[in-house]
Prior knowledge:
Blueprint: H1 9-17, H2 22-29, H3 34-47, E1 68-69, E2 75-76, H4 79-85, E3 92-98, E4 101-107
Antiparallel strand pairs: 1-2, 3-4
Helix pairs in contact: 1-3
Organism: Desulfosarcina ovata subsp. sediminis
GO molecular function, one term: DNA binding
Region (Disordered): 108-135
Amino acid sequence: MARKKLVEHNALVQAIEMGTPQSEIMERFGFKTVPALKTAYYNGLVALGKIEDVSTKRKKKNVDTKIRVNGRGSLIIPKNLVDHLGIDPEDIFEVVKNSTGLELRKAEKPPKTILRKRTQPPMHRKASNYSRLSN
């Protein structure tokens, strides 16, 4: 992709609006092609606030919102729906049945329990007579 040419927007827009011939503008501002001149003119109009910039963002695809139940009875939520809704893999939900159907609500996560090892003195075995037998 070609580098963007740095041009003084005000001077370029003014030259075009005054009716200066295209070849003279291209020579004066150093443009080699007409599309480069048109792009710079458009960018100049946007920079000066004379027109609004065209949105070039892609529209997000529609996400399938259907959830299914597998043979073990687990709800299967498609990955793209999980990403779209911002669901964390560790989130916990509760299912509520209401007059219109089922509703999934985020439930509070139970507090994490920290298991600590007991600090008991090590067990000592008493030596038995059997372990001291000679071969």
